[in-house]
Design goal:
By secondary structure, the protein is an alpha+beta fold. The chain has helices at residues 2-50, 57-73, 75-89, 96-113, 120-133, 142-156, 158-169, 176-202, 206-211, 217-231, 233-243, 251-262, 269-279, 332-353, 359-378, 383-397, 427-432, 436-461, 496-508, 511-521, 525-529, 532-545, 555-577, 590-609, 615-627, 629-652; strands at residues 298-299, 303-314, 317-328, 403-404, 408-411, 415-419, 425-426, 463-465, 473-475, 481-483, 489-491. The chain has a domain at 496-613. The chain is built from 26 helices and 11 strands. Pfam families: ABC1.
Length: 653
Amino acid sequence: MVEKESKKIVEVNLPILKQRTDSVLRGASGFAVSTVKLPKAFWPVAQLLIRENNITRDELSSDLDNLFEVLYQHPLSEHSRLFTTYLRKYKLLPNEESTENLIRFLVKQVVARSPVEIPDVIVEEFWSFFQELISAPELKGLVELNLDIVRLVLRTYEPLLVELINKVKQIRKVNQIAASDMMQKTQILRGDLRILRRQIKAIRYIKPFLQTDPKDFSTQAEIISKMVREFGPLFIKMAQVAASNADLLPEEIASELRVFQEDVDPMLPEDVLQAFMEVFGKAPQEIYFNFDIDKPLKSGSIGSVYLAKKPMVKNGVEVLVPVIVKVARHNLEREFQMGSLAIELMLMSSQYWAPHSKLLPFLSAMSEQIKEFTKGFEQELNFEDEAVIQRRFVDRSQKSNIWHVPQLYFSSGRILEMEFLDEAMAIKQAISEHEGKSRSRFQRKIAENFLFTILEHLIVHQEFHGDLHPGNIMVGADAQLYLIDWGNAVDMNGKWLLIWNYLTSVLAGDTSKLARVLIEMSTTPEANELRFEEIKKALDETLAKKKITPLEKNIAITLYREGQEGLHRRLQASLQLISNTYQLGIVMQSDYLHLSRSIVAMAGTYLNMYNGVSKLTMTADLIKDLSLFPVNLLKDRLSLKRESVRRALTVAE
């Protein structure tokens, strides 16, 4: 009896054992075959290093993409995914439940800290959207996630790697100076690590910010200030943008952000000295009189500004002339690139804490949008480019009595020398010198001149200042404007039709037209065109949440019923939507992104000029100044002609 049962057990287990053995052998065989393929995948990259000719970034990027594609297909990645799923199942790694708890905590914090009350129906609508979003998560394994991070870092360093590889190829052909230059390039990596560590460390302030009392805006403002200052130039630039449209923020936070528009920590004296040695081979004290390297007049995210005196020949006589010397900070390009990388790494790591496939397109689009956003800032890093823009606007300003641009005396990559505006002062300081009705009249006159300047730049010159926040505008005693810091300008040639279509489609609530415009403005219009219906549906939902209904036949009646509040909603949507298209999975071209940034900055500056003045007065002034622009432009030109004739007659006498 026992022997029969044993025989029966053996007969039942043999097929199962055979099946499992075959499975193990097939798995081992697949693993071996895939492993054998790896050297073949590495070979194209190795060939780039071996061959004699220089390589290009496209070649390196293509071969690295092919290599990583093979690595993703390796059985180890599949095993990693199964292992990761097991760890998430037993809560050893974040899973769907922990993701939902994290999102609930963040939503609770946002609701608690909102300066305006958020209705329950909006919160419920968000949870309905969130549940739909994460209904079918597709997890990545730890190996795949690490491969993603490695590829991201390599992609950031591709230009540097190409340069280093090509330098290595030329070692036998170059002299000791070139070899030394190669070593300097490798030092960039060490410097980048220091910058990246500092920036990632600065992001730690997010945790104490969320732990503060929701209504303790003073403490929150202090934390934000510390994070921005520690992170460096990229966050300072972003803070300046946020401050330009801070009307929805608590006053404590808005005030802290506005500080970054006017002044930030000055450059270190040794950095200033390094810039002068790099450009002139001399210390600033050997070139200027009264140049105090420890006391800049003003400091910004890009550099510091100093007041000094310089000998110049005027009317055949040498005199000491006060000048402004602007010095660029060291290593700014690396600061911006590392800042972009730090934010991308933070977004990439969020896939670990919130592992849902439907969040990936949103995060990827946000990451790409940050890179496009940073491109516009990087245009401000070379002072030679800034000098070209400034000289162009100096010539244009000669035709106006309302706005002026300081003359340039000298320009280089890191140092600018220009005219000192002895009668000009900051907007806030100029307004503070008036009281009562005089103060209100002065504010309105500044705003009138500001709007006139913007319209002249837009309509006459088709180009305008790319960052007109209050810190870049100075005011004379008669409310004349002096525009400084020309690191960025927006060229409107070829953009008018798209911008017009964008504004009209948002104001009219026409999502079909709006989707077409946004697709055309995007970095990948062909790919986004295939998603037209998806984008249109998302825009329908977005505008519906903003209570913007389509204007069809009864346009005037609809606008009349909505009143001023409805028009304000539509205008706010037009300002905000183009900067938040990553929510639709669309990445905007850098030009259009910075155009929206510039418009927001100008709109915020214009509103700040009416601080303490009624909105009714501001609206009336806006309508009047817009309608009278052609008349005011003619008057400005005629007044300049009269002054020219008067001067000529004086000389003749």
